[in-house]
Amino acid sequence: MKPTAVLFVSLCLDLIAFTIFLPLQPKLLSHYVAQDPADGLLHSALQAVGWWKHATSAASATTPKLDIIILGGFLGSLLSFLGFLTSPLYGSLSDRFGRKPLLLVSAVGTVIAYYTWVTAANFEAFLFSRFILGAFKCNVNIWSSVAADVSSQQDRAGKMAILGIAFAFSFTVGPLFGAILLNLNPPEFINALLPDASINPCAFPSAVATVLAVLDTVFLLACFKETLPPASATPTKSKLSLGINPFSMLSISKTGAAETVVRKIVMIHLMFLICFSGVEYTLGFLTWDRFGFTHKDLGTMYLVIGLVMALTSGGYVRRKRNKAQQTADPVLIRKTIRKMVFSGMVMLVPGWLLLAWSHNLWVFYIGILTMGASSGIVVNCLQALISTYGSADQQGLLLGYTRSYGALGRAIGPFLFCALYWQVGSFVCHVLAVVVLLVPIYMLTTLKKYDNQK
Is pLDDT at 433 greater than 80 in this prediction? Predict the structure, then answer.
């Protein structure tokens, strides 16, 4: 199989397993709340949520359902923060030892994390499984490096778009699959292998996620062939050591890359995802507060976002890439990618303003459409753009930094914008998101002078 085909199949298996969890989280956490002793870790965490709500003027919102939503967001931030710490390390290790060994390490770690989730009888065990998952979830940035390995500057945006299509497909199918599994009665012989529902009510969906992770591991072993050029597989120890500390990006000149533009792109990525993930997280509050959304309504919303992501990644991005590729001009291709990122960010300005003013579902869904389209463009095109400023032996590290600071943005955004939402209200929160977004949009315009840089 071609590396890009292996990339798509493996990433879909991994992301469907990952997104199965999304609709299960409220029920699973509610189960652990009922089981947890009064002095247990989960009750302490919910007390911390109560303190945080009081500090952010959200004390009036005291429903247990809302507390679970907030706690779930904090758990997501924890997973993202672990990704921030580990992504550069795994990226630089893949530059030294190859892509396949690190993909297998990630896959095996994911299997262990999901199996730990299957047997998690209490919140502490469940939290431990999330720590394992966060520590080993490095495959996305390595797959980005694979896409860079097998592409030239002329077709890199198209190869990176495959990641976006896989994300869109998985985030459309995975949550729906998880909801179906949650309400499905498995055959008796499978039930006999699983913990009792009184121990883990989500044992069957988590077992399915484990099976998908095992299939992904076997598929990688059998079908993936190393893509890192042999001459590039031995970077110096100084380059490898940069991956240990994600803050070493500030001294990224040691990699020999075009350090100024690399730092700018990484900071653009960070600021964009702080805003995007923050607004994305507040959608749960906005839909609960204004429209009284049920879990089914939220599933419909995420389905719409996923479909728009897929259409944008597979349509707009590929069409623009193909048009630029016909010229075989690296400068024009870099300029085209940069302009696509710009358009993806700018469309969020009216979209988020519509969310701020939305008091009917039509206006709300128009705003949601812009978020789906933007997410299908910006992140993957930023990865394609930064990869054009590094050599073959720098792809893992550079894309690792990009994923790392993107994960940091996803860790900061929910905290920041959730606090803003309850402090100043949904309208001001989303207007402020637009104001902050203008900063990375402006920074993106300053990259024009680097289009000719090698």
Answer: yes
Calpha distance 428→432 (Å, rounded): 6
427, 286 contact by CB (below 8 A): no
Residues 6+ apart with CB under 8 A from 62: 53
Q: Which two tokens stand for residue 336?
A: 């085209």
Tell me how far apart the alpha carbons of residues 136 and 103 are, in angstroms, rounded to a whole number: 10
Residues 6+ apart with CB under 8 A from 404: 83, 84, 85, 86, 87, 88, 91, 141, 246, 249
| pLDDT, mean over the chain | 81
Task: Reply yes or no on whether the pLDDT at 22 is more than 60.
Answer: yes
Q: Which amino acid is at 361?
A: L
d(CA 44, CA 225): 47
0.85 surpassed by pTM: no
What is the sign, positive or negative, of the torsion defined by CA atoms of 248, 251, 253, 258? Answer: positive
Q: What is the separation of C-alpha 77 from the centre of its chain, rounded to a whole number of angstroms?
A: 11
The set of residues, in sequence order, having a beta carbon less than 8 Å from that of 296 and lying 6+ positions away, is none
